[in-house]
């Protein structure tokens, strides 16, 4: 009950709700602007793509592939004969030039799906050769690495062909994170500073009362961060789904060309969850900084000012300097999962994304310590 | 239940200014009126007791039936200018405060909490406004809500800083009765400018001036001190100015034949003066202007 009321008091304010809506709208507008050309082009291409997609959707079978190849051949003949457009049996008007591009794209996608096991087998074979290489006998780490590649890449194949291009755009997109942080900074900066500024904290007598108040505020803050981040993420999915319909949610993640070499053996849905969780950890980290500032300031304006400067500084740091212990990196995590790269934490070798995650969680633990100290003084 | 609040040699300085100067007090169950002019050190002393300010020296201790307790866990406090969450209704605000002030085990029983909050609202005559937003409350209603939140957890030490400012006459009478009824089982410290609020309910009056405790005694004893010093004189309007410049005056009121002026003076004032029964207002004038 206390947490719900704290949530209502601190986050369900008209000002916060209005700003959230404005920034969500702005996010969509920027998305439309950024993808304006792509949107128009994609929707056109998407419509063409969706026209042919039913032929090959689902389980990959030789008949489907042949039908598509025949269609391409027929279309190419028409194109070479100078036929610009024609009507299909149902009376749909089709353009030979557009069909050519779409069919080429689709065949390319299909070939990727179809030949992926062959490509990956090539890598596995190379890894096996590396292990057996007499020159590498004494290089245990190299052997381990190659064994890991074999383990991760074995038994990989893509059963079904689906619409997955939108997912790649989604994992590339990061502007919404910026808007989300702009929303987040407002209520979190005021969370504690406002109580001091208005002298409301005076009625919270005793350490136990204060601790309970701080606990309720922190839980409410993290509920807010979660709701906000999942809302922005869902809006992003809806936007990208609009320009490129997305399905095949349970296809393996390597069915996306972007992640053909990933070490992960999970489906797209699980990857969306991981992608979201990584971003959520980054938001939690930023949220903690905002909250600590709020705890240590007596005026809302001071807290807001400091937090905006911190936000700009961290964004700048991420764009210009690559620092591995910057949890902000988790917001743009798509590149971490692309390759088969590993890093060392003490004596353990871990995949790069987990390395960043562990470091970020470590930073969060450190900040929690700072928060505890600040809370005692509040 | 025997409660005891002991302040030992409390001193608080702000730079060169000594706001509270070596204050020692021992309080037991009952109402204590804390009286003093603006800047006398009342609020600072209260803030030290409730932990909002840290004393430079001295200590604050609280005992219940002889056992020492963390004082801050025993306090209900209404600050001088309480600010509440205006978007909440009275009931929501009290629920919020119960959630913070009571431990989790207590707050799990929603029905019991709701009944408890209704009880607090009834006690402070706010029940019929329980679903109204605090933003729509008058100053007096906010003050009553502040008292209601101070009563959460049944505190053994209740500290109210200017609790009756903003209350109308009826509300003040109700408030006095409420405080009186609660004083048997707890220590209540009531800092106020409105002397009549404490005159009849305070077990003892604590007079504070420039950070020092001038007096701590029952109202009866204090008034006894000035029973030979409180005078009234009937005057015409023209004479008022002359008397106010000569003597400390505690009251002037209009009568059928002119004006009556109340003077605090160790010697009989000039003119046709006569001794009257003093009240606490007179004692304050005595303390702050004569003594």
Explain how this protein is built.
The complex is a heterodimer of chains A (378) and B (291). Chain A has 378 residues and is mainly α. Chain A contains twelve helices and six strands. In chain A, helix 10 runs parallel beside helix 12 (352-377). The longest helix of chain A has 37 residues, at 96-132. By secondary structure, chain B is α/β, with parallel strands linked by helices. Chain B has helices at 42-49, 90-101, 104-107, 110-123, 139-150, 169-182, 196-199, 219-225, 237-246, 280-290; strands at 3-14, 17-28, 30-35, 57-64, 67-69, 75-78, 157-161, 187-191, 204-209, 212-217, 230-235, 249-255, 258-264, 273-275. The model of chain B has no long low-confidence stretch (mean pLDDT 88). Chain A binds chain B through residues 1-3, 5-6, 8-9, 13, 198-200, 202-209, 212-213, 216, and chain B through 50-52, 70, 72-73, 75-79, 81-85, 87-88, 92, 95-101, 103, 107, 110, 113, 146, 149-150.
């Amino acid at each position: 009950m206390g947490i719900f009321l704290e949530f209502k008091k601190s986050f369900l304010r008209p000002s916060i709700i209005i700003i959230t809506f404005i920034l969500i709208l702005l996010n969509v507008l920027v998305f439309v602007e950024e993808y304006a050309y792509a949107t128009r082009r994609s929707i056109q291409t998407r419509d063409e793509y969706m026209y042919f997609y039913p032929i090959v959707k689902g389980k990959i079978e030789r008949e489907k592939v042949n039908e598509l190849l025949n269609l391409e051949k027929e279309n190419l003949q028409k194109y070479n004969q100078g036929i610009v457009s024609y009507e299909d049996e149902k009376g749909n008007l089709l353009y030979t030039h557009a069909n050519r591009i779409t069919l080429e794209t689709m065949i390319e996608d299909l070939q990727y799906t179809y030949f992926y096991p062959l490509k990956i087998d090539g890598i596995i074979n190379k890894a096996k050769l590396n292990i057996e290489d007499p020159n590498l006998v004494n290089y245990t780490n190299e052997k381990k690495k190659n064994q890991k590649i074999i383990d991760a890449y074995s038994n990989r194949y893509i059963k079904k062909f689906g619409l997955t291009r939108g997912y790649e755009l989604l994992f590339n997109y990061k502007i919404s994170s910026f808007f989300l942080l702009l929303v987040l900074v407002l209520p979190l900066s005021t969370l504690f500073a406002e109580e001091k500024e208005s002298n409301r904290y005076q009625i919270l007598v005793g350490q136990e009362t204060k601790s309970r108040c701080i606990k309720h505020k922190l839980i409410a803050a993290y509920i807010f961060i979660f709701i906000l981040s999942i809302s922005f993420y869902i809006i992003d999915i809806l936007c990208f789904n609009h320009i490129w319909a997305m399905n095949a949610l349970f296809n393996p993640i390597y069915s996306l060309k972007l992640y053909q070499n990933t070490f992960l053996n999970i489906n797209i849905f699980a990857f969306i969850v991981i992608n979201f969780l990584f971003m959520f950890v980054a938001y939690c980290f930023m949220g903690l900084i905002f909250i600590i500032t709020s705890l240590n300031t007596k005026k809302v304006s001071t807290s807001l000012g400091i937090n905006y400067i911190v936000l700009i500084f961290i964004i700048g740091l991420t764009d210009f300097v690559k620092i591995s212990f910057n949890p902000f990196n988790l917001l743009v995590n798509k590149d971490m999962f692309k390759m088969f790269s590993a890093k060392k934490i003490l004596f353990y070798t871990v995949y790069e994304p987990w390395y960043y995650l562990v470091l970020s969680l470590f930073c969060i633990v450190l900040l929690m310590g700072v928060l505890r100290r600040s809370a005692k003084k509040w | 239940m025997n409660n005891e609040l002991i302040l030992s040699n409390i001193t608080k300085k702000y730079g060169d200014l000594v706001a509270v100067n070596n204050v020692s007090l021992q309080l037991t169950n009952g109402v204590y009126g804390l009286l003093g002019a603006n800047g006398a050190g009342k609020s600072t002393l209260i803030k030290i007791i409730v932990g909002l300010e840290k004393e430079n020296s001295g200590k604050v201790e609280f005992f219940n039936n002889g056992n020492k307790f963390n004082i801050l866990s025993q306090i209900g406090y209404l600050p001088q200018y309480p600010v509440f969450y205006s978007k909440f209704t009275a009931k929501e605000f009290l629920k919020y405060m119960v959630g913070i002030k009571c431990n989790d085990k207590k707050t799990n029983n929603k029905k019991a909490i709701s009944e408890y909050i209704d009880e607090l609202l009834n006690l402070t005559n706010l029940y019929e406004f329980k679903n109204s937003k605090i933003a729509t409350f008058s100053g007096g209603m906010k003050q009553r809500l502040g008292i209601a939140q101070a009563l959460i957890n049944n505190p053994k030490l209740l500290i109210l800083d200017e609790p009756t400012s903003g209350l109308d006459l009826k509300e003040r009478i109700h408030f006095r009765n409420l405080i009186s009824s609660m004083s048997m089982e707890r220590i209540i410290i009531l800092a106020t400018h409105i002397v009549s609020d404490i005159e009849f309910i305070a077990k003892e009056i604590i007079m504070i001036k420039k950070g020092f405790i001038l007096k701590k005694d029952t109202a009866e004893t204090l008034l006894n001190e000035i029973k030979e010093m409180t005078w009234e004189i009937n005057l015409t309007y023209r004479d008022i100015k002359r008397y106010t410049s000569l003597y400390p005056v505690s009251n002037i009121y209009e009568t059928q034949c002119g004006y009556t002026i109340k003077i605090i003076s160790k010697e009989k004032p000039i003119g046709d003066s006569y001794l009257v029964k003093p009240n606490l207002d007179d004692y304050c004038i005595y303390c702050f202007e004569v003594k």
